[in-house]
Specification:
Radius of gyration: 27 Å
Number of domains: 4
Number of strands: 27
Shape: globular
CATH class of the largest domain: Mainly Beta
CATH superfamily of the largest domain: Pleckstrin-homology domain (PH domain)/Phosphotyrosine-binding domain (PTB)
Distance between the termini: 41 Å
Strand content: 25-35%
Length: 574
């Protein structure tokens, strides 16, 4: 039986709407909801997700194009169909350029038009759902491998590294290119190697996994106890070809209901083929999100749909002095205690209101841009120090658009002193890549940038006060030594080298080709790469500007999120 496809149809002509609904519901796999105005439709969309939205262009309260823009601004991913009886080419052009997926022409041939629309819906809805899940998985995979707290590496059968992620580079304190020429077992204490070999040599294609706890000699000479998951990859003849290892630090592990004394005496334990106990489905679902947020170089926390804290980043623990182990699992607005000294509402309550709390004016004021809430600056005392706090929060949604969790990022700076000294400047983020290019002036340069033939290796970076465009010396292909990759690695999802490491203000100022204070910016324009390169254009109030061309959609997504964080009020999309 085919899966039911949900449709929302909006038209201010009741007779047409009723007839249209009756025709669509002749199809057993279509479920239709109707609305007579765009305002009514937006109210319905606040409560329910629809696979397809079909809207008339000419409506009294808001035309279909304005409705489409509002839905896309809210982050709505539904397939959008624009319907009109007017035979004007610009309506179709504007609708499709704004993000519509299909154009329905009302008229004498309506029966055939509706049949074609139904065929389109049945093909496009499964495709769009698959695309959404693929994009979400790519982002999730990239965050886990490149930014996660876990140590992930691949080694040959003899132990030679073939791949290491960024946490491994930090642990061993060696550049990526040097590390992949070395042997994993050289970092294992001599006394533990033989037992490890015994365990992993017993792996088979039928039982390719084992869980071991052993030490690693870190780059600073420390002997670090880690839990390692070994997974073997075998040839068709059953010979081992490679191992993938995932390691994690269990020193902060809190074990409930049992003593750890016996386990503390054991330096090595194997559990090949062990099924163990299965954690609750809900907790398992948040583990990856928690690991990802924990590694972010920003103060961030997250709550689930019931208001319980599920993630508390290391940077936030450092800021507040309250470790994650003391916050994870708490509800009742306990996330406010480190900032205000008592439980209470924060910006995140705009998205998820914890059970047992009363809605009212107590939630901090915020500006909503799309599905992101941006709070006003507040004076608070954190660990006895006067600080200026500003929050930004967004929902975490599943493929059906349902809110499963919410994430709040905290930006803090020192409060001004009584003499009027300037507030401190904090790093927000940035990226350099060979896919980011600055073309020369004039029409020729613009064409070169748009078709992707200009030289790359530039970067865009933001602080709480300034925006920088830099020429990254590590990615300068025109330099005699070519591209130097340092401690970052080839990013498979970019298809080229990218650098997202935090940079100091001195590095940014030394490498800048363009800089602007936040207050001096007139507008920031973003165009997504489709057939030609996209671009980021930064224009100042004095008329000066710079345009950076973007060849890759992943780089575009990173920059889009950074610009939303830095200056959402002057950000324009083309």
């Amino acid at each position: 039986m085919p899966q039911t496809i949900s449709l929302l149809c909006i038209d201010d002509e009741p007779l047409f709407l009723d007839a249209f609904k009756a025709r669509l519901e002749q199809e057993k796999d279509l479920a239709v909801t109707t609305a007579l105005t765009a305002s009514d439709a937006l109210d319905v969309l606040n409560r329910q997700y629809f696979d397809v939205i079909i809207a008339d262009y000419a409506m009294p309260d808001m035309d279909g194009l304005a409705l489409l823009k509002e839905i896309r601004a809210r982050g709505g991913q539904s397939i959008f169909v624009m319907a009109t009886a007017k035979r004007l080419a610009h309506i179709a052009r504007d609708a499709l350029n704004t993000g519509a997926d299909y154009y329905l022409q009302k008229g004498a041939d309506m029966a055939n038009e509706v049949a074609r629309l139904i065929d389109f819906i049945r093909v496009r809805v499964p495709q769009k759902n698959a695309e959404y899940e693929l994009i979400a998985w790519a982002r999730f995979y990239n965050s886990i491998v490149d930014s996660g707290a876990e140590l992930i590496c691949r080694i040959k059968a003899d132990g030679t590294f073939t791949f290491v992620n960024e946490p491994c580079v930090h642990l061993y304190k060696k550049p990526y290119r040097q590390l992949v020429r070395e042997n994993f077992f050289a970092f294992v204490p001599d006394s533990e190697r033989s037992e490890i070999f015994t365990c992993i040599q017993g792996l088979t294609p039928e039982k390719p996994d084992c869980l071991l706890q052993h030490h690693i000699i870190a780059g600073d000479g420390r002997s670090v106890p880690l839990e390692w998951g070994y997974h073997g990859f075998f040839s068709q003849t059953g010979a081992i070809q490679e191992y993938q290892l995932a390691g994690r630090d269990t020193s902060a592990l809190v074990r409930i209901g049992g003593s750890m004394a016996d386990e503390a005496e054991t330096t090595l334990s194997a559990a090949a083929g062990d099924t163990g106990s299965v954690p609750e489905e809900k907790q398992e679902g948040w583990n990856d999100l928690m690991a990802t947020l924990q590694s972010l170089d920003a103060p961030v926390f997250a709550i689930d749909a019931s208001g319980v804290i599920i993630a508390w980043s290391a940077k936030l623990a450092q800021l507040t002095g309250v470790p994650a182990v003391e916050m994870i699992g708490k509800g009742g607005q306990e996330y406010a205690v480190p900032f205000y000294g008592k439980p209470g509402p924060m910006l995140i309550d705009h998205i998820i209101r914890p059970p047992g709390t009363v809605a009212g004016r107590d939630i901090p004021a915020a500006k909503k841009i799309g599905d992101t809430f941006i709070g006003e600056k507040e004076h608070v005392a954190i660990r006895g120090r006067p600080m200026i706090l500003q929050g930004k929060c967004s929902p975490v949604q599943n493929a059906a658009g349902q809110v499963m969790a919410a994430i709040e990022a905290i930006t803090v700076s020192e409060a001004r002193d009584e003499t009027g000294g300037a507030a401190s400047e904090d790093y927000l983020g940035g990226i350099s890549s060979l896919t980011l290019k600055i073309a020369s002036e004039g029409v020729g340069g613009a064409i070169a940038g748009a078709i992707g033939s200009a030289v790359g290796g530039y970067g865009i970076y933001a602080t709480t006060r300034r925006l920088f465009v830099i020429r990254n010396p590590d990615l300068d292909v025109s330099a005699p030594q070519g591209v130097q990759f340092g401690t970052f690695i080839m990013d498979e999802l970019f298809g080229t080298a990218s650098d997202t490491r935090q940079k100091t203000l001195g590095e940014l100022e030394n490498s800048r080709i363009f800089e602007s204070e936040r207050k001096d910016l007139a507008k920031i324009t973003l165009k997504k790469p489709v057939l030609l390169s996209g671009y980021l254009e930064i224009r100042k109030t004095d008329g000066t500007s710079v345009r950076m061309y973007i060849d890759h959609k992943k780089a575009y997504t990173y920059i889009e999120n950074l610009m939303k964080m830095f200056a959402p009020d002057i950000l324009i999309f083309e």
